[in-house]
């Protein structure tokens, strides 16, 4: 039995797997020792992937309403309804809502169909909920959405700062790498309102007030400047500094003011600032605690400012590092699968639109950015989107104000859901359901958090009538009338086209093998080895802006709102270690369910006493958007006045824990990312 090299289905760490098929829908999973992301290691979720490849709950045939249908009939109906809707109401009356679970080839085709052929940019993705603030922050600072760090930078760092990230649970293999570096002498600082498993093992934990990250990072830069570690030569040569930057930064950035704003001990803050100032090789990793905020982009830029101003970028062990949640969030970014980008990192400038339209030989091209996720579902609810195709995601659970999203789906004249799972909270509202091939059944590429591109490979043939997403999209495109533009027989052809549009193919200078490999393997799609495009970003001090210079962005701490009378607490949301999204896969592995069997609301002991909550009792959490039931866990890891709940449970998995009902649909003004981390809330025992 030969092991097949593929990658994990879950998070953005992008671990390599050696999968050996041992029987009918049976597979042995091992970490791939040759993959540079994990070097043979796997976390609990990856280890138990083999338990999740059964057919329980699978959608195996196309369905029109409650009836089985042939592919021809279902695809013809989808193409006709989209064509008719566009003819009657225009291209902006339709939308796609896609997913970081899609492979790059799937993402590329969905983007091409919507932006080049339908002529709208109404394609957004659940990655909007995950890392779009990092995208907007990178673009403001660097001119393009480029992650300027790799996992090898962690191996070279002397100080590792984790901001808004429970890495030990959410990116376990990155965390093992961090621990190995700490064992060799590096220091670890964790900045997070909660004392998570990650924070417990840090040299220093700053349990800051939620939403005060800009103040904390601006204070770090003011301290660094006073300590003389701002890199004046680098700023002069490579960075544009707005006139008001330093004067604005200095306002309220003294140690005592920042400590008060952030509600942390001045001595702890000073220790962090001194460590940062004294350690040139610093990597700052940030995740959802930064991104999922109504001030997420400013928070990202406060971190990028700190690294740019101290010249800690483009050098080994010195970089800001956005770590992504999903296996292919980065692949989606590369093809332009967000409503706010056109294709291949290009925006909607006239010359880009002309170039992409020419390349695709497309009849039209989207004239402007489309609707971002929260706006998309709001317009769906207002009746302006009249046909929606949801691919590989479950917005009726995962969007903020999920109750309103459900109502919008129920009222939409035509909803298509292509998914692996037969019954989801979203597909309950679908007029047509299309069976998609799952992990282990499809072929393509994914890009992980450090820009390593790897192959996912099929282990089994798709069951029943299931088909890969790229095949479903190209069939709809062909049936809408664009036969030549969507004439693909295999994903390798789509990959090649993506590379040509991105200027990558035939540009060997930008193709890099990874440590431990003798060559980069993109020449042969089938034998492709993990690789990266491009060397160390910004190592030459050149940035992809018009003048080649990066930009410091003036950002100020927004006032933090006083508690509301009826919702005096602050609700935070996040992942558990052994579950993934809405548990459609991890729910199939009994060993994973044991880690946390039900959704808990974590409450500080003082709040529990004051509100008569008992550990193990039930409580109802309420917000201005809705309510849901949880079991209480009294925990000193919470700050007083703050609650934490997990995101995974749905109507189909529990009577409570419907976290999506609780957050408000408020978004960051630059990125459109919703703020999941700070919702006014109440709690009462039941
Ligand atoms: Fe999979 Fe992420 Fe775990 Fe790696 S760290 S095995 S990619 S879930």
TrEMBL record:
Its cofactor is [4Fe-4S] cluster; Mo-bis(molybdopterin guanine dinucleotide). GO terms for biological process: cellular respiration; nitrate assimilation. The keyword Metal-binding applies. One of its GO terms (cellular component) is membrane. GO terms for molecular function: 4 iron, 4 sulfur cluster binding; metal ion binding; molybdopterin cofactor binding; oxidoreductase activity. The keyword Metal-binding applies. It is an enzyme of class 1 (oxidoreductase). Residues 1-57 form the 4Fe-4S Mo/W bis-MGD-type domain. Keywords: 4Fe-4S, Iron, Iron-sulfur, Metal-binding, Molybdenum, Nitrate assimilation, Oxidoreductase. Its EC number is 1.7.99.4. Belongs to the prokaryotic molybdopterin-containing oxidoreductase family. NasA/NapA/NarB subfamily. This is Assimilatory nitrate reductase catalytic subunit. The lineage of its organism: Bacteria, Pseudomonadati, Pseudomonadota, Alphaproteobacteria, Sphingomonadales.
